[in-house]
């Protein structure tokens, strides 16, 4: 490849990366500034089988991130959660952080134990929380994603939400695969890989 062609490509890459960065900042700002929806102080079940209010999941913070996980049968949701496990201490330093699954509490506990997940885990089984947040459809199918909440004057508001999927902003594996000569190809996450 000629040097001039390489420089042109590098300049296009730099320009596009700058544009994407600015648009991502704008998108995040718009999400943070959209009207907030007041939500009920939902009752969920922790992995020990105890009933916990949404307001308690904030811990010592007034902001909370809730990961909406599709349960133990989803290798994609497991990939995302495995990634959060590595940065949970950073996340919990800034805000409350928890994962909510549609699985039963004992299933959540057992699966998380096998994965060595260190974050707080809750079951949404028997609660309207997952459906009301838009991560369960009328057919009972679940969608992965995240909701953020804030407590103000004794009330809870959902500030923003987003859905998870391949190449989103919440799983670094896809972005690293994108740098490979053949990209991610037809790669699919698995619960376990053969060496």
Descriptive overview:
The chain has 195 residues and is α+β, with helices and mostly antiparallel strands. The mean pLDDT is 94. The chain contains 5 helices and 8 strands; from the N terminus they run H-E-E-E-E-H-E-H-E-H-E-E-H. The chain folds into 2 domains: 3-32; 37-172, Glutaredoxin, CATH 3.40.30. The chain has an 8-stranded mixed sheet with strand order 1-8-7-4-5-6-2-3. It starts with a helix and ends in an 18-residue tail after the last helix. The longest helix is centred in the first third of the chain and has 31 residues, at 3-33.
Fold topology:
Elements: H1 3-33, E1 37-39, E2 43-46, E3 51-53, E4 63-68, H2 75-94, E5 96-101, H3 105-115, E6 120-123, H4 129-132, E7 145-152, E8 155-163, H5 172-177
For the largest beta sheet, what order do the strands appear in spatially? 1-8-7-4-5-6-2-3
Q: Which CATH-level-2 architecture of the largest domain? A: 3-Layer(aba) Sandwich
Subunit organisation of the chains: single chain
Shape: globular
- Fraction of residues in helix: 25-40%
The structural class is: alpha+beta
- What is the strand content? 15-25%
The unreliable regions are none
């Amino acid at each position: 490849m000629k040097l001039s062609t390489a420089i042109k490509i590098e300049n296009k890459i730099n320009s596009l990366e700058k544009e994407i960065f600015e648009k991502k900042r704008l998108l995040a700002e718009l999400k943070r500034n959209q009207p907030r929806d007041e939500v009920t102080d939902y009752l969920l079940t922790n992995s020990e089988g105890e009933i916990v209010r949404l307001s308690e999941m904030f811990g010592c913070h007034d902001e909370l991130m809730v990961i909406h996980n599709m349960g133990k049968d989803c290798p994609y949701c497991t990939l995302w959660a495995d990634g959060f496990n590595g940065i949970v201490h950073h996340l919990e330093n800034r805000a409350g952080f928890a994962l909510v699954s549609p699985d039963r509490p004992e299933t959540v506990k057992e699966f998380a134990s096998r994965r060595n997940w260190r974050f707080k885990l809750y079951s949404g089984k028997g609660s309207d929380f997952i459906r009301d947040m838009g991560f369960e459809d009328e057919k009972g199918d679940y969608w992965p994603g995240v909701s953020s909440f804030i407590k103000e004057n004794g009330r809870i508001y959902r500030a923003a939400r987003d859905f998870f999927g391949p190449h989103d902003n919440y799983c670094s594996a896809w972005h690293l695969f994108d740098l490979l000569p053949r990209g991610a190809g037809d790669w699919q996450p698995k619960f376990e890989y053969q060496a």
